[in-house]
């Protein structure tokens, strides 16, 4: 069954492209509130869904970090997540996107995994599978979970940390979690048929082989155990070979080797060493690497969130946490436990993926907050312990306090030891040696406190360092009260400016104050009031949702980029000469064409800077569109050195039509050059509206000329001879393409 998208008029299969978690969550909240006689509209619930789940995400971060390094580290990490700029971008009111609920689901799933790993409770393992199911419903980033956890399980097995708790934490997640994931329509059988999930199944087999080896080791004699191991290894190798052969057959049958396009762009970030540059974006040359996506699936690479980040974006998105993360990683190794090794693996993988795709900064932000919280908590512990040991009057109580102070990791490890002991007792395993070893390794409380005394810092250094940490925390939280009037220097204010401002209303600051650019709403209002309800509007897919919602008009393509062929058709029209583009748009029943142009005011995210993706996406479906035809010395140019194909394409003409009238030169402030073709006329399109700052320009397709049928050969020859005489005399029509 399918339904028609009111925005594009295309038939869409329900659940084929949309993850239902966000919609179900908002709908459930609305239903609960109305059941409690709290009448709120659906719109209000959607606006506040992200802030509500940001509080849940901070709570989940506290629980996860508490399981790793104690309550102090958990509180610090939760406070950091509440203020980190990267997460603010998805937790502000009105940010109704999948990540609004998915980040909470991600952190909570990791917490339940660590909780199960520390306790060995099947109850928490079941909850972990349910949390994973919610994550699958919410966001496609669930594949990060189903690959990170198997990596950690394999790491524990290789380093000799296998236990029954590890088995309980992982096996139910693979079985129950995969079955639940297959129930999500957008995932379906991909949960067992795609390469993103094969790692979890392979580790699942390895885990059972290791568990079986440990089991037979406890019930057999050493001699019989060697024979059994030989048999198990032989059978295991045969089974593994068969499984690998099946996987190879499945992978080989797929053109992408069983991987999705986004996964391949993450795993193969630089398959080609070439570079393609777009000349002069603002004051610098912006370069885009040829990733797998940009080479084979340009529709993925064309999304700005899928581009690699720059170094300054790390300091913008995670701020001072960039300096605390290394200290937190070091703190995770003292001592190294199953939980802390998971955090190290989490931060390492998230750093890599965030370096490939800027959107995955959202995955990196919680890991940075966790490790930074651990680092700050350890620093506070060192300074406060040093002060406590050296202040008069409390030194007598130091030993008692030191004995009572313990982290959640130590408690979890003690519980784990007790669980292992009970299991060993039930299996009649010898435990006297282990008890004796524990007594030998366990130092006395007095020795511990004496060791801490030796490691204590000087009193004055500890006090100054503690005050500096508190002062730096104040700088991190808010310094608006100390800043000069009108300036914004604190992290919270900068994040609010960058992520909370509406993207449809643009602002800029200069020496004469704040300037507001409201061209988008101006253009959408014109469409809503001056066009028919049934008129179709063609534009690049970035503006599809906005046009549908604010202008209430049908668009050809929108931000739901599931139909690559339809987007390629629009890209081909924008890349074609005027007449060919008119024919394409006329075949799509388009009445108006909307383009975004920033050359007058210096707005860099205009359609000329996105034009390379129109060429690549269009050329991927229609081979007659060739990117080299638009390049001069490997660059997209719009000046006098531009290629004829570039100067005659529809995008160039619609963007720069009458542009020379603004200053007499046709100087583009974004590309910082004068345009190459300044004077030309449109023959198949007519300008109907241009906004105040020329940021949005709307053109109407001219109606087709009447065709006279049944012309005689005599009249045709007469017409052709007349046109030939006109050409010879120089009075004929000038070719519009030159």
From TrEMBL:
The keyword Chloroplast does not apply. It is a multi-pass membrane protein. It is an enzyme of class 2 (transferase). This is dolichyl-diphosphooligosaccharide--protein glycotransferase. Residues 15-370 form the Oligosaccharyl transferase STT3 N-terminal domain. The keyword Cell division does not apply. InterPro entries: Oligo_trans_STT3, STT3-PglB_core, STT3_N. Belongs to the STT3 family. Residues 706-717, 725-738 have a biased composition (Basic residues). GO terms for cellular component: endoplasmic reticulum membrane. The lineage of its organism: Eukaryota, Viridiplantae, Streptophyta, Embryophyta, Tracheophyta. It is found in: Endoplasmic reticulum membrane. The chain crosses the membrane at residues 16-33, 45-64, 70-88, 100-125, 131-155, 167-192, 198-216, 228-252, 314-333, 340-358, 364-383, 454-477. It catalyses: a di-trans,poly-cis-dolichyl diphosphooligosaccharide + L-asparaginyl-[protein] = N(4)-(oligosaccharide-(1->4)-N-acetyl-beta-D-glucosaminyl-(1->4)-N-acetyl-beta-D-glucosaminyl)-L-asparaginyl-[protein] + a di-trans,poly-cis-dolichyl diphosphate + H(+).
């Amino acid at each position: 069954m399918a339904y028609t998208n009111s925005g594009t008029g295309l038939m869409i299969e329900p659940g084929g492209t949309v993850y239902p978690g966000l919609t179900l969550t908002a709908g459930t909240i609305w239903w609960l509130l109305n059941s409690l006689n709290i009448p709120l509209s659906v719109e209000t619930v959607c606006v506040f869904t992200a802030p509500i789940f940001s509080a849940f995400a901070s709570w989940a971060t506290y629980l996860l970090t508490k399981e790793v390094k104690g309550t102090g580290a958990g509180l610090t990490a939760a406070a950091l997540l509440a203020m980190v700029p990267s997460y603010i971008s998805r937790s502000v009111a009105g940010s109704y996107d999948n990540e609004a609920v998915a980040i909470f689901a991600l952190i909570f799933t990791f917490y339940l995994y660590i909780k199960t790993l520390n306790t060995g409770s099947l109850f928490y393992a079941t909850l972990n599978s349910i949390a994973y199911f919610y994550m699958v419903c919410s966001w496609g980033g669930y594949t990060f979970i189903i690959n990170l956890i198997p990596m950690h399980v394999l790491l524990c097995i290789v380093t000799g940390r296998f236990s029954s708790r590890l088995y309980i934490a992982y096996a139910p997640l693979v079985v129950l979690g995969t079955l639940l994931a297959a129930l999500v329509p957008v995932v379906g059988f991909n949960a067992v048929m795609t390469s993103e999930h094969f790692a979890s199944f392979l580790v699942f087999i390895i885990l059972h082989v290791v568990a079986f080896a440990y089991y037979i080791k406890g019930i057999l004699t050493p001699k019989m155990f060697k024979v059994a191991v030989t048999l198990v290894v032989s059978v295991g190798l045969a089974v593994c070979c068969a499984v690998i052969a099946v996987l190879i057959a499945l992978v080989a049958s797929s053109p992408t080797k069983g991987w999705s396009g986004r996964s391949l762009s993450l795993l193969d970030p630089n398959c080609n060493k070439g570079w393609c540059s777009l000349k002069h974006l603002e004051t610098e040359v912006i370069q885009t690497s040829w990733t797998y996506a940009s080479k084979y699936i340009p529709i993925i690479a064309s999304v700005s969130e899928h581009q690699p980040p720059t170094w300054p974006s790390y300091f913008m998105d995670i701020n001072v946490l960039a300096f605390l993360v290394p200290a937190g990683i070091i703190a995770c190794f003292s001592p190294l436990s199953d939980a802390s090794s998971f955090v190290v693996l989490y931060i390492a993988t998230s750093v890599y993926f965030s370096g490939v795709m800027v959107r995955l900064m959202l995955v990196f932000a919680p890991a940075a907050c966790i490790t930074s919280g651990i680092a700050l908590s350890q620093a506070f512990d060192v300074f406060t312990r040093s002060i406590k040991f050296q202040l008069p009057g409390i030194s007598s109580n130091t030993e008692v306090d030191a004995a009572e102070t313990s982290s959640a990791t130590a408690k979890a490890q003690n519980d784990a030891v007790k669980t292992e002991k009970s299991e060993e007792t039930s299996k009649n395993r010898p435990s006297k040696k282990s008890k004796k070893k524990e007594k030998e390794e366990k130092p006395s409380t007095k020795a511990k406190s004496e060791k801490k005394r030796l490691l204590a810092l000087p009193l004055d250094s500890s006090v100054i360092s503690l005050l500096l940490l508190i002062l730096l925390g104040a700088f991190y939280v808010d310094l608006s009260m100390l800043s000069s009037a009108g300036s914004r220097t604190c992290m919270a204010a900068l994040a609010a400016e960058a992520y909370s401002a509406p993207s449809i209303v643009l602002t800029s600051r200069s020496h004469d104050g704040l300037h507001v650019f409201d061209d988008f709403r101006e253009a959408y209002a014109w469409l809503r009031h001056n066009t028919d309800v049934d008129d179709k509007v063609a534009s690049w897919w970035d503006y599809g949702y906005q046009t549908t919602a604010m202008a209430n008009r049908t668009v050809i393509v929108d931000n739901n980029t599931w139909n690559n062929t339809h987007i390629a058709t629009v890209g081909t029209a924008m890349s074609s000469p005027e007449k060919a583009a008119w024919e394409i748009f006329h075949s799509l029943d388009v009445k108006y064409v909307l383009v975004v142009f920033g050359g007058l005011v210096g707005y860099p995210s205009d359609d000329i800077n996105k034009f390379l993706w129109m060429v690549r996406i269009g050329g991927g479906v229609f081979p007659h569109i060739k990117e080299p035809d638009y390049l001069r010395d490997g660059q997209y140019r719009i000046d006098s050195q531009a290629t004829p194909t570039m100067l005659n394409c529809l995008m160039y003409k619609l963007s720069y039509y009458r542009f020379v009238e603004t200053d007499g030169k046709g100087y583009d402030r974004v590309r910082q050059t004068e345009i190459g073709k300044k004077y030309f006329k449109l023959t198949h399109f007519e300008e109907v509206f241009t906004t105040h700052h020329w940021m949005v320009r709307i053109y109407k397709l001219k109606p087709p000329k009447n065709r006279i049928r049944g012309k005689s050969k005599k009249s045709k020859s007469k017409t052709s001879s007349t046109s030939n005489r006109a050409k010879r005399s120089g009075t004929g029509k000038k070719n519009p393409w030159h």
